[in-house]
């Protein structure tokens, strides 16, 4: 049988994330991966969560194993609220919804807002998981260049002027994926001003905000919003465990109500056990202490990566912005136009990196950039991986 | 701010499932609920899963807490395959995808197949979660009446004749929700014949198939499919735990590939811990023995419900088909046109039932039917609940 004719237009040209495809190729245990977005596994609180899970299932099996409510287990909603309130990101008229990972929140927010052909303004480059989610609603993606201090506001205003029907801006303002860049306070204020002037919503994705290891915190866009324009997506993936798939959305009630209906027909509710485990973990332990340990480790790993980049990358041929937090380092090779041969050669040398095209609005245009992840590999592997990349770059640039 | 103008058309008129809304009203612990679709909590293997979860997190914290792959943890895929193969429902060219509950599989299959305005043929009445999922893709739902032995094949053929552009048939052939009806073997074969003649796909939803307590098993539609037309959705919700949100899809590879991409942008992957727990449970225990206990209990509960219906319902005024398995009993009151006052009065008497309109293609048309659930209440509460419904029916019919 030929199946294409049964497929919705939205999936006909859709391909999986090359990063996750790369994961499959990386079954080879010898490969040093600087490709993924995995947090450091060495700090996962396995023992603590083991005791917590065992106890929950022993003492509250019905609660843990029976159906739950779509909006989330009430105490889990309180936990999410606490995290969001810590950065002043819950408005008076907002509702909180627990999501099976923040990505679900991004996907369902897009589903609640975007008709086919609707315009969504995104950072260029940006996180492929979100870009692909928007693509599945057949939205038109309008890219705005990410500068060293975040989205270009000149370009954003031009884009808004030329697209008066744009509905929403999607941004990862803090330690952006893939660039690692943080949007300045001035730009955040300007973005809100423009959103108000041109009457669009903002979807703020903040999975990395807790992972600052240098510099000063910048207020979330949501915390600066006085009009109720910002939908805020938070995550426990980078501060507790990504495999548990726990995230949340803070949204004005009328939008939250629609997103909740979409979640109801999607996965009915987020698994109960993982919600209960998160609640107990936050009750018994100081999660901020745990996050602080992660921050310290990521600072060390990032410094190690940069030290080795300075040592092994061909001088003057690779540009990057030193991140102040998060998981990623973004590199540009201005003397070439296409990084693909570098990425391939690196894989031959058993080190995996992600080509910039993966994060582009136009995935088929060549890119001279690549993304490095410093959170998941060991210090030794970071040093060795960067050394090998350096050899490839020296040979090919 | 006024938010309607930012909303996608698909959600503007969308409302949550009245059943799940009813759950919220049922916070009152005195209410006897015969409304939900909860499996019996008294049999949940809490102790076994407690030990399993504790051990997994202690010995394999990275596996349980780190990101996993979108298609599912390989051993969990094997478990799903085993369940599907038990009913001969894995074709040669099929792929298996683990879902965060079977509902996600239904939702994402619809997303992979349905453009706006596309036609999907559904049983009338049918499961509201699926109907609402189809509605969110702005598909046109074409209802085909459920008879005592399943979908009317005459009506199905007429519908296919009159809608040559229909793409897919959605069916719950075994212990259908809400009717409890099982489609006969003849009708299953006929449905496949019609699907082939009119060139449409079939989405077979089989969450209750393991729960037969009388009569003989009927082969799944998928097992009779020789052309690769059937996508099969299986679930662990009714045979292990609904709160764990574990289901799966068996689909021809070209479709599975697209559904996988849609899952990737939806929740990235199903939580790892619950997958690992299911794998261990199926390795250490005989899940079929556990299911057999559930079947026996549901048989008893269903018999108790019918015994009390015969005793308390006004004679000759309520019709039903005795189910041979599953969770539901469907009642029709031919002497009235609208069951709403009965449902309201029952709530006053602290017993919750679901009006038929919830399962209708046209949710606003009055219905003289209601659905009873016998799996979750105790035998005592079933008897007491049915007695109270009988009082209301005697008064109002």
| Average pLDDT over all residues of chain A | 95
| Shape by Cα distribution of chain A | globular
Give me the Rg of chain A, rounded: 21 Å
Q: What structural category characterises the helix and strand content of chain A?
A: alpha/beta
Strand content of chain A: 15-25%
Which stretches of chain A of 5+ consecutive residues score pLDDT under 50?
Answer: none
* H/E topology pattern of chain A: HHEHHHEHEHEEHEHEHEEHHHEEHEEEH
Strand order of the biggest β-sheet of chain A: 2-9-8-7-6-3-4-5
Amino- and carboxy-terminal Cα gap of chain A: 47 Å
Helix content of chain A: 40-55%
> Count the strands of chain A?
14
Largest sheet of chain A: 8 strands, mixed
Most extensive protein-chain contact, per-chain counts: A-B, 93 and 93 residues
Count of helical stretches of chain A: 15
Oligomer: homodimer
Summarize the structure.
Chain A is an alpha/beta fold.
Polypeptide structure, described:
The structure is a homodimer of 397-residue chains. Chain A has 15 helices and 14 strands. In chain A, strand 4 and strand 5 form a beta hairpin. Chain A starts with 8 loop residues before the first helix and ends with a helix. Chain A is α/β, with parallel strands linked by helices. Chain A is 43% helix and 16% strand. The interface between A and B is large, with 93 and 93 residues.
